[in-house]
Amino acid sequence: MTDKKAKNLVSHSSAHAAKQVKPDWANGLRQLYDNVVAEPLPDAFADLLSKLDSKT
Predict the structure, then answer these.
(1) Where does the pLDDT of residue 55 fall: very low under 50, low under 70, confident under 90, or very high at 90 and above?
(2) Which candidate, 12, 20, 36, 55, has a CA 20 to 30 Å from the CA of 3?
(3) d(Cα 45, Cα 39) in Å, to the nearest integer?
(4) pTM of the model
């Protein structure tokens, strides 16, 4: 195996391992994001979007 192939293999293995280990705060951040996305659009925003759409 060449030096370049060995470095790529080590680099790929390290990247794969890094993807699998999540910090403690990652789950909390994911939950927060999911909760915000699940919230309904406020009426004021819906009205504004409707007004902007009708002007085009």
Answers:
(1) confident
(2) 20
(3) 13
(4) 0.43
